[in-house]
Design goal:
Elements: E1 9-21, E2 29-38, E3 41-47, H1 48-54, E4 55-70, E5 72-77, H2 93-105, H3 110-126, E6 129-136, H4 139-149, E7 152-159, H5 170-184, E8 190-196, H6 204-217, E9 220-225, H7 229-239, H8 243-249, E10 257-261, H9 267-276, E11 279-282, H10 284-289, H11 297-302, E12 307-309, H12 322-337, H13 345-352, H14 354-359, E13 376-380, H15 392-399, E14 405-410, E15 413-417, E16 420-421, H16 426-441
Parallel strand pairs: 1-4, 5-6, 6-7, 7-8, 8-9, 9-10, 10-11, 11-12
Antiparallel strand pairs: 1-2, 2-3, 4-13, 13-14, 14-15, 15-16
Length: 443
């Protein structure tokens, strides 16, 4: 019996599209293509006519005017800070944090965090993000919100040595981290992690305990690091070392560590990150807005460091839109290096997909190929600014703005379609969120 005579293979869904950007190792871009999906995973990708003849889907999702690409991966955010969007703009990091954000966070409640996180999930789903790393307070409320939204996430328990709305002591925060790891054991879409806030909010012993916790529980360790030149100066005075070597001294660097920002890095820092396999979350818009500086992304990538893209929180960005971050990251590196070839479109898309997934220790994400989770988004190619679609990767990075997203899928399930959220009552959420935001901000 020939292949042409073989009985069609049953699958849950066949997605057809005008263009599929695979982000596989070959970086294939397919025209008039399709993906076959079963049990939330991709089983085949290829020409539409070929897959339509080979598979018998329970459902066909036809997107004849759309460009499909992997779901985007946000490697650093504080989701519930949507509650503080616009609270303080155009201020230095130290003023923004100490005079505005920390006082507002002192009034946080688990319910407010749940609402803020769920609103953030809606915002990310509507702009093609399917997975994110969150580092914040009241992590059980965060987990409840993300589970309700149906997104994929790495959820970090934040740890401080300063009293906050969540905990009065770092001991209590570490106990919560252990409870989180127990709660998420076996969860297919959620993974636990730990997040000591920074070298300036955590004592040396606390940082060492967090590193030990991550090793013992086999979870990701993430922290803010080298976000500003001042952070290095203060660390040098307090610990006789810059931030990166100080973290290394405490056993915090390694392939299971993700550093947020990495702006103020020198050549020795770069070499240490590459040597240890430490990864970095680049947040270009937040870094620009707070005048923190320009991370040496081009040099990090050249050194072999995995660099993902992050939005940071909505209080310092002020959006959770990775299409915007891709554009900004690519243009910023060209200006910083004086080289128009620096961080080309394909590299920026890698950072928002497969490299971000690698940075999170979840390498099967961020690509559309057999065996990978069916996490994807689709852009409307009928929009004027996506014509004539000569180079789909270029369009995704330099022309798209996230508003073209017409579909977002996580693990084979559609969560956002044509402006409608399928896993939440957005209007009910919006009203409750606004009340919580007004109470916290006093405005």
């Amino acid at each position: 019996m020939t292949n042409a005579d073989a009985a069609p293979i049953a699958c849950d869904m066949l997605v057809t599209a005008a263009v599929v950007i695979c982000q596989n190792d070959a970086r294939d871009v397919l025209r008039d293509a399709a993906l076959a999906i079963t049990d939330g995973h991709i089983v085949a990708v290829g020409p539409r006519t070929e897959l339509a003849g080979r598979y018998a889907p329970a459902e066909t999702l036809a997107l004849p005017d759309a460009m499909v690409l992997p779901g985007l991966v946000n490697t650093h955010t504080h989701a519930a800070m949507t509650l503080f969007r616009g609270l303080c703009d155009d201020a230095p990091l130290s003023v923004w944090l100490s005079d505005h954000i920390w006082p507002a966070e002192a009034r946080l409640t688990p319910e407010a965090v749940r609402l803020g996180t769920q609103l953030a999930c809606a915002e990310m789903l509507a702009s093609g993000t399917t997975c994110f790393l969150d580092a914040y307070l009241f992590v059980d409320a965060v987990a409840d919100a993300v589970q309700a939204a149906g997104m994929r996430a790495i959820l970090c328990q934040g740890v401080f040595d300063i009293e906050n709305a969540g905990f009065k002591t770092s001991d209590a925060a570490l106990a919560s981290a252990a409870a989180l790891a127990d709660r998420l054991a076996g969860e297919p879409l959620l993974r636990p992690a730990i997040f000591p806030h920074a070298v300036y909010t955590c004592r040396e012993k606390t940082l060492e305990r967090c590193a030990a916790f991550a090793r013992e529980r086999g979870v990701l360790l993430s922290t803010h690091a080298a976000e500003t030149a001042r952070e290095n100066d203060d660390c040098q005075k307090a610990n006789a070392a810059r931030v990166i070597p100080y973290l290394h001294r405490l056993g915090m660097l390694g392939p299971h560590t993700l550093l947020a920002h990495g702006v103020a890095l020198d050549a020795a820092d770069l070499a240490l990150l590459a040597e240890t396999g430490t990864t970095v979350a680049h947040c270009p818009k937040s870094n620009m807005k707070l005048a923190s500086g320009i991370a040496p992304v081009h040099a990090l990538r050249d050194a072999g460091v995995a660099v993902g893209l992050g939005t940071d929180g909505a209080a310092s960005n002020n959006a959770l839109n990775l299409f915007s971050e891709m554009t900004t990251a690519a243009l910023l590196q060209k200006v910083a290096t004086g080289d128009p070839t620096a961080l080309h479109a394909g590299a920026a898309l890698d950072m928002a997909t497969r490299d971000g997934a690698r940075a999170l220790g979840w390498p099967e994400l961020g690509r559309l190929e057999p065996g990978c989770p069916a996490d994807l988004c689709a852009l409307d190619l009928t929009r004027p600014h996506l014509q004539p679609n000569i180079d789909p990767v270029s369009d995704a990075v330099y022309a798209a703005n996230g508003g073209e997203v017409v579909l977002t899928m996580v693990a084979g399930r559609v969560h956002f379609r044509d402006g409608v959220f399928l896993t939440m009552d957005y209007e009910v959420l919006r009203q409750a969120f606004r009340k919580a935001a007004v109470r916290l901000s006093g405005r």
